[in-house]
Prior knowledge:
The chain has helices at residues 4-26, 52-72, 75-97, 100-105, 116-123, 127-139, 165-168, 176-188, 202-207, 213-219, 221-245, 265-273, 285-298, 300-305, 345-357, 387-390, 414-427, 434-442; strands spanning 114-115, 143-147, 150-153, 255-259, 278-283, 308-312, 326-331, 370-374, 446-453, 459-465.
Amino acid sequence: MSHAELDRLQACLNFALDTLRREMDNSQLPPLSQCSSVEHPLDDPTSYLPSTALFDARRLSLACLGELKNLVQSPLDKRMDEKYSAYGAASIDILIKTSIIDYMSDLSNPSEGIPAAELASTFGLDSQKLIPILRCCAANGWVRETRDSSFALNRCSRTFIKGHPGRRLNLSTPGFMSIVGVMPSWVMESDWKLSRSPAQTGFQIAFKTPLQRFSWVMQNPHALIPLADHLQVLGDMSTPGIVADYPWEQLETPIIVDCGGGEGGLVTAILDAHPSFRAIVQDMENVVALTSSIMKERRPRDVESGTLNVETHDLFQSQPRIGNEYSFILRHILSMYQRHDWPDKEAAAILGNIARALGPKANSRINSKILIVEMVAVPNVDSTATTSAELFLLDGNDKRLDYDVPSHFGSASKLVNAFSVHMLTLMNGCERSLREWESLVNGCGLRITNVYPLRAHTSVIECALGTRALL
Ligand SMILES: C[S@@+](CC[C@H](N)C(=O)[O-])C[C@H]1O[C@@H](n2cnc3c(N)ncnc32)[C@H](O)[C@@H]1O
C-alpha cells in the first residue's frame, strides 16, 4: 500500500531536521533541550540571527510538523485543540501576571521544580485551580512537571521573565480575548458586517467605543505603554535580519531616514553594521522627545557629530528631507494604515509624501530608495511553484525537493495569517499581498525594484521612482 503523502512528508522532515542539526553544529550552537532551564540563542530573534540554512531548516521543520499533524490528527481532536487553545494562552498569561514565572526563575534550584501547592500558598491562589493551569502550560511546552504536581520553568518560559522579550511582547493586552470573542458575530450578523470602515469593527463592539483603535489607545494611557513595548519587540525581532539580509552596500544615498522610526533601534543597528551611513529618525513630537534622550544617552558622539539626528515629522505632511542624499525606511507603518478605504487612502498619502521628496532625483544617477518593511501575505497554495511564493524562499535549492509543504510554509507562516485576521478585527485591515503592495506603490508613481526575504517574518519591499515594475 502506498502512503505517498506520509512518506514524502516524513522524508522532508528528516531532511529538515538533519540540516537543522548540521547547521547548529556548524554554528557551534548547543543542542536544543526542553529539559534545560537555560535560554538557547535560537530562542531570541532580537539578539541572534541564525545562518540562512539554519533559518530555512527550522522553518521547513515547523512546516512539515504542521502538515504531519494535519495529516495524522483526527479532525475532531484538531477542532477541540484549536478551540481550547485560548485556555492555553490564558493559562500562561496567569503565570506571567502573577509573577509566578519570576518566582520560579529565582528558586535556588529552578530545574528541580516546586510543588503547585507551595506556589498557590505563596501567591494566595487555590491549588485546585493552579494545578490544571500549570498542566495546561506543561502540555504546551512552557513548563515541565518534574514530579506529580511539581513544576519547573523550562528553557522556553524564560522568555517571560521580567525584562526578557517574551514578557514585553504583550499579547495579553486587556480586552484581547473579548475582541476575539466578538469577531464571529461582527463578521456574520452585525449591522457592520459589510462595512469596511475602521470605525465599524469588532474592536468598537468589544470595547463599546466609537473610537478607532489608535485614537482609543491615545486616550487610554494604561494601554499605550504595553502597546509601545509590544511594537518595539515586534520591530526588534526583524532588526538583525534587516541589517544582514538587505544589501546596504548597494544603497547609493549616504543618509537613511527612518520615518515613524520610534525609538530608533533600527537605524542604530544599521549604523553599527554600516558606519559610513548617516541617519535620521522622524516621529511624532511626543515620541521624538523620548527618542532624543535615548540617543543622547546611548550614542552621544553620533548625536554630536550629526551622524544621527532625531526630528519631529508628521507622516501626513510633506517630507522635508528632499535631495539626492536620502533613502527612506517605513517599518510597520503602512500596515497601520490598512486597505480599509480603497485605494488605501492613508497609506498612499504617506508614500506619496515620500515619493514627492524623491522627485528632484529623477534625472540624477543616484537612486534613492524607499524600503517598506512589512509582512507580505502569500497564498498557502499546494505547490511551491508560484512566482510570488518563490520570492520568499531564502534558499532556492529547497525548490528541488519533492515535498508537500504549501508555498508559504503552511503552519510556519500561521502567524502572518492570524495577524491578518487580528488587523481585520481591530481596524478592518489585512496584511497586503505582493500584488496589493504593487498596486499601492505604483499608484504613488513608484515601482517595486526588488523584494528581499529576511530571516524574519517580514520582508523588505524596495521601491524607487519610475515606471518599470518588478512583477
Ligand atoms: C508600529 S510603530 C513602528 C515604529 C518603528 N518604525 C519600528 O519599526 O520599530 C509606529 C510608529 O509610527 C509613529 N507614527 C504614527 N503616526 C505617525 C504620524 N502621523 N507621523 C509620524 N509618526 C507616526 C508612532 O509614533 C510609532 O513610533
